[in-house]
């Protein structure tokens, strides 16, 4: 297979260990049978693990990496060991053209730093952004960015994030003209900082791009399904993400406690079990796993460290969709069209 259909996987990253990573890769291979893999990590351990996945062995190549980045390792320390670690070598495979994307469930800060240093930002992009899909009450998930790569952003950064997020939504959610909104403290035009209002005006004028600017959105509307892309600085985005995840866990734990409180509650649980199972499945982060660093000269996807087999497969599936759609090229084209119109 060509390098354009190959994904490099940091097999040693993640909290659940090599066995779960390989099971997730095998599951992704069943869903995307035209994708092959570079499995990066301890060669002996990977080879032994592949004995449980004979079909995966036929479509994978092992790339030995003697070291692993620890979950609590500082990015500055991790960068110095990039050439010998499974994470660093997986990213380098993208840089060298051996793979079209890299996927890791390892240390987020280290992955971000290594990816930025190795791949660099694409022409016309000032800063890369971390984007992820969050569940909604609508027909599809919502793309939210930035989720922590940039704590402070000016209007130009926010506009670039919007262009990249819209291209990502067209690719992953199969939308022709995604609805884009800026996260703000109110929906009125006069609300928010000068940077946010300036970015909003630029996006209103960008009617030639394949997206629809829908104005401002407040935090309590993130999951309503009214927008396809929500743009913010990394500080606000990371807080919004952690709040949403915490709220999902709170609701799940509250339901468990309520259903265990009495015999009548237990009976009620049995009756409502189909609905609670649907809720749990909808909120399960493994079904929405795989954040991507947009704006780099190559695709790097971050999987949850605690992802199970299904979560790992979801992250790899997102990477496969972006590879097939040539997301990097789409972003460059959209940004070029925006800059050309702005200059005119």
UniProtKB/TrEMBL annotation:
Give the enzyme's main class according to its UniProt record, as a single word.
Answer: transferase
User: Which pathway?
Assistant: Lipid metabolism; phospholipid metabolism
Q: Subcellular localization, per the record?
A: Cytoplasm
Listed under GO cellular component are:
cytoplasm
Domain of life where this protein originates: Bacteria
EC number(s) per entry: 2.3.1.274
Which keywords does this chain's UniProt record carry? Acyltransferase, Cytoplasm, Lipid biosynthesis, Lipid metabolism, Phospholipid biosynthesis, Phospholipid metabolism, Transferase
Q: Which GO terms describe its biological process?
A: fatty acid biosynthetic process; phospholipid biosynthetic process
InterPro entries referenced in this protein's UniProt entry, alphabetically: FA_synthesis, Phospholipid_synth_PlsX-like
Q: Which SUPFAM superfamilies match?
A: Isocitrate/Isopropylmalate dehydrogenase-like
Note the Pfam families from the entry. Answer: FA_synthesis (PF02504)
Q: Which GO terms describe its molecular function?
A: phosphate:acyl-[acyl carrier protein] acyltransferase activity
Q: Which reaction does it catalyse?
A: a fatty acyl-[ACP] + phosphate = an acyl phosphate + holo-[ACP]
What the record says about family reads:
Belongs to the PlsX family.
Oligomeric form and interacting partners: Homodimer. Probably interacts with PlsY.
Q: What is the stated purpose of this protein?
A: Catalyzes the reversible formation of acyl-phosphate (acyl-PO(4)) from acyl-[acyl-carrier-protein] (acyl-ACP). This enzyme utilizes acyl-ACP as fatty acyl donor, but not acyl-CoA.
Q: What is this protein called?
A: Phosphate acyltransferase
What lineage does the source organism belong to?
Bacteria, Pseudomonadati, Pseudomonadota, Alphaproteobacteria, Sphingomonadales
What is the gene called?
plsX
């Amino acid at each position: 297979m060509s390098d354009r259909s190959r994904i490099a996987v940091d097999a040693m990253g993640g909290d659940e260990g090599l066995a779960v990573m390989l099971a997730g890769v095998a599951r992704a291979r069943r869903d995307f049978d035209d994708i092959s893999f570079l499995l990066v990590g301890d060669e002996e351990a990977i080879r032994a693990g592949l004995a449980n996945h004979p079909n995966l062995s036929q479509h994978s190549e092992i790339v030995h990496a003697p070291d692993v980045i620890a979950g609590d390792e500082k990015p500055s320390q991790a960068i110095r060991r990039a050439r010998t670690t499974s994470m660093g070598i997986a990213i380098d495979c993208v840089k060298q053209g051996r793979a079209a994307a890299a996927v890791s469930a390892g240390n987020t800060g280290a992955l971000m730093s290594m990816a930025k240093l190795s791949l660099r930002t694409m022409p016309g992009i000032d800063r890369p952004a971390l984007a992820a899909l969050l569940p909604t009450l609508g027909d599809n998930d919502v793309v939210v960015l930035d989720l922590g790569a940039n704590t402070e952003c000016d209007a130009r950064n926010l506009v670039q994030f919007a262009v990249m997020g819209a291209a990502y939504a067209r690719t992953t959610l199969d939308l022709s003209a995604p609805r884009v909104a800026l996260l703000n403290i109110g929906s009125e035009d006069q609300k928010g900082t000068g940077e946010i209002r300036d970015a909003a005006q630029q996006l209103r004028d960008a009617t030639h791009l394949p997206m629809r600017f829908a104005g401002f959105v407040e935090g309590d509307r993130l999951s309503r399904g009214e927008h396809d892309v929500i743009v913010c600085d990394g500080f606000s985005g990371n807080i919004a993400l952690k709040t949403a995840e915490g709220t999902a866990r709170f609701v799940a734990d509250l339901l468990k406690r309520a259903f265990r409180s009495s015999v009548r509650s237990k009976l009620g649980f049995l009756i409502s079990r189909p609905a609670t199972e649907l809720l749990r499945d909808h909120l399960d982060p493994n079904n929405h796993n795989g954040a991507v660093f947009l704006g780099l000269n190559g695709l790097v996807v971050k999987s949850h460290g605690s992802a199970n087999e299904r979560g790992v497969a979801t992250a790899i599936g997102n990477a496969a969709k972006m590879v097939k759609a040539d997301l990097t090229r789409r972003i460059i084209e959209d940004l070029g069209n925006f800059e050309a119109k702005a200059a005119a």
